[in-house]
Amino acid sequence: MHVSFRQLQVFLCVAQCRSFSQTGQTLGLTQSAVSRAMVELEGQLHVRLLDRTTREVLLTDAGQLLAQKAAPLLQELADTLAEVADVGHAARGQVRIASSPTLSAALMPACIAACGQQLPQIQVQLVDRLQQEVLAQVRSGDVHFGVVVEPPELGDLDYISLQHDPFVAVLPPAHPLLQQAGPGAILRWDQLRGEPLVLLDHASGSRRLMDAALLASGCGPEHCPVVQEVGHVTTAFRMVEAGIGISIMPGLAIPAQGFSALQVCQLAPQVQRAIMLVRRRQRSLPAAAQAVWDLAAALLSDAPPN
Q: pTM higher than 0.85, yes or no?
């Protein structure tokens, strides 16, 4: 069997584009060259990978399996070749970073801008995903590294702790807790007992930390009902404005300009979430990814949480 890297590369592009002509345009090949590469690949494997019609190209079961298995292998090979090529040369190429939405919005724009200024030969691509997906992509090698809230398990990851982000309460300005405490007050966690809560759902890396802090202060589900669980912080803020409940949020989720219709209040005792860079353990990064990792570690460690 003599399957080439180029044949697999063409196949994966066909699997993504579902078109021979578009694949040719993407890879700089003629349509006949794409077709020939696919015929040769199917001949080497002795199995049909594609069903072709006049309108579209569909993957067979064997084609779907090959696309699923080959993509990460080819990406790892491409990373390896890029790393070898970078030895003794200036770091260059594309670096993929995954980050959860709150961290993507609060930390990554300035970081990516700084990379563009200080590492102009490197293109940083941000993959904005939920925390669980970020960790999965780091572990699979689909991205070079991730920016995450400290996960429950770090055994298979190398990491750097960047900063600690405290949780805060978000309430309507006329809420009785604020009226009782006065301006600039700090609320205790146990003062939230009996309040309906609007929280981020369990896909968020912060939710388990919020739940633990509430439980430790005697504000478990039986005392503080979670009336809404949402995927985005903006949704939670709008629900608090509508009077559905109060919310607990990481400080980095609060807009830099603050709110016109909501009040943010510190919580005591202070409970923080650790923000980390994570990468696969015992896997060296390509030179470009290592340069971005080092710069991100320096920049984000100096960025104080709200």
A: no
